[in-house]
Amino acid sequence: MDQIPDLLNGFGTALTPANLFFAALGVLLGTAIGVLPGIGPAMAVALLLPVTYGLDSTAAFIMFAGVYYGGMFGGSTTSILLNTPGESAAVVTAIEGHPMARSGRGPQALAAAAMGHFVGGMIGTTALVLLAPTVAGLAVDLGAADYFAIMVLAFVAVTSVLGSSRIRGFAALLIGLTIGLVGMDEMTGQSRLTFGSLHLADGIDVVVVAVGLFALGESLWVAAHLRRSSGEPIPVGRPWLSKADLRRTWRPWLRGPVIGFPFGAIPAGGAEIPTFLSYVTEKRLSKRPEEFGTGAIEGVAGPESTASASAAGTLVTMLTLGLPTTAVASVMLAAFQQYGIQPGPLLFDREPELVWGLIASLFIGTVLLLVINLPLAPVWAKLLRIPRPYLYAGILFFAAVGAYAVGGEVLDLLLLLLIGLIGFGMRRYGLPVLPTIIGAILGPAAEQQMRRTLQISDGDLTGLVNSPLAATVYAVIAVLLMWPLVRRLVRRRTRDRAES
């Protein structure tokens, strides 16, 4: 346990008045920016890079870590209240969080998210301290076939549990994969679905896709049905969590880090895959599966705890290997290079004050997030008292600002409108939105890993299952696909025996 004295020294660094101020500032900035649709923690850290030129490196990275954690929580706030994820890790939270808000349980959803972030962050950061070398070693051993299998599992899992039918789920996934194809093929250099536009050569940014499908699609859907409803503000309801809520959430809070931390440490999509899998797990284990889709608090608690622990896992490979697994980690890697520091196996020996001060600040930032945001849950929820015409007009404004900020091109606004119309049509015909998001996010990465695997095996399809982990994952996928058929067959035989 050589890490404990180093961690105590890190707390000595992080608890100085100046560094404590920068930790609190990072948490506040991250939460505020995370609330804005489309401007996630990665963009926040990137915008702050020029501001930190005059700061000490330790203070700068402590503030970046606060922005990272605060941005993830801020994204879940708008995801719950407005069905508009501030960043991609908060997409899953909207599935159950927004129905809770619409039924007057917005403060409970926000409190469950805040506690989930606290529990996941504390457990994940503790695992970062104790298990960083081991998890980094496991991540190095995974190959392209393993990553592709994990992504296929995410595709199948999310389409199997959402929507009224699997056909609609796979149709929504196909839409997302098609959006992910837009851009230049990285291996051949050929343009795909760009229609001659150079701006589309880099693909459609996932922020534009997420904001268009959720924010714009939801706003158009509400506008189309506003005359049929009263248009009254959504009730806020009673704040805080009841004993019944705590009984339903403490297990998801503890299960989240088990899923989120390992996935955060491998370059397979950041927090998106583990939050999807956490949602699937909570639905499978819930005693009230019929509530999922209408506001099950487990569907908020589990994914939020998972996302927070995933952030800690992301820092494992970034600090020990210099390998960024998310957009935020990529920006932080650029910040390290800005200060002339190279993350890797020797970082803990060369820059112990910086590394352990940064890790200690994660514990402090997690506590600050809870202290700041838990009392503010009823205040945030009062956003729902704004009449819906004004509320959704504001959402459209911030959605347009967020989409335009991505690339500074008018074409991004046109893409936002087009994708918003697709989101409206999906709601009209009962297609779930989430498979489309995961298809757009993970589709390009899955294609790249598949082609890399086939190149290694000279086009032999058995190369996709040439590792024990990949074979195991495909076995799980087969169970997920076959289980409904087997269950239906068993029920039919049981009914026939009962009738006979």
TrEMBL record:
Which parts of the sequence belong to the DUF112 domain? 20-437
* Alphabetically ordered keywords of this record: Membrane, Transmembrane, Transmembrane helix
Transmembrane region positions? Answer: 20-49, 109-132, 144-161, 167-184, 204-224, 311-333, 354-377, 389-422, 429-446, 466-486
Which is one Pfam family of this protein? TctA
Name this protein carries in UniProt: Tripartite tricarboxylate transporter permease
> Which species does this protein come from?
Actinomadura vinacea
Organismal lineage: Bacteria, Bacillati, Actinomycetota, Actinomycetes, Streptosporangiales
